[in-house]
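## retry 2 of 3
previous attempt timed out at serialization; input unchanged, resubmitting
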Amino acid sequence: MRIVTEPEIYVVGRQTLDNAEVQRFLKDHETYWETDSENNSELIVELAGRVCYMSFGVKQFRKTNDAYVGNLINQGHGSVLEHAVWDLLLTGVSRSLTHELVRHRTGTGFSQLSQRYVDESTADFVEPGVIADDPELHTLWQQSIEASHAAYKELVAALAQRVQEKHGDLPRTQRLKMAKEAARSVLPNATETKMLFSANARALRWIITLRGGEGAEPEIRKFAVKLCRIMQQEAPVLFGDFEIVQLADGTEGVQAGHTKV
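## retry succeeded, writing output
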């Protein structure tokens, strides 16, 4: 059992753009497109915006990607940001965090570790910062976590025996699932989990804005700050208006330059 205090985000999937197909489209419509970005996510957003008005060739305005996309964001035309998508693998986050994150259903997809199938006898746990900073609170928290974890392991063993006695004809995998799905009821929200999280740029902007705010729960705010930094590296034109700020309690938060995108 480990105590975890920091989330980890792995960028496992990014937007791709088939330039040959884009050029075929432009040729079929006897036009051209000049831009200066090589970032596929930024390019797909610009392409989407230009398709809406067929602003290619001589009709093209704001020839830099930054200027064009920046104008879309400034005007609040966020729908074109939905075409840029990322796949993120999250670890080191608690079930408390994912209970909040999965509420963002628009423009997102979630695949989370199953406690019905995965043995949590070696589970890790995420400690809130406000508890970790106080030795007495930390001791109390750790004792509670260890007791819950011990109860889980005892329940799995006892339930496995009970299921074997009552349902010995079932496949072993199903019997184990029945034991773990019942025993998991004693595990706390602090149990560390893993999730593959897919989202488009518009959804990510909203999550960062909402969950990075001062009123957000501290763990998910820490996650939002880390996500913001990653997305600013991934697509600075799409996320460049966000600012990491110092909050009154000494932690970091996020402020969006444009909130209605």
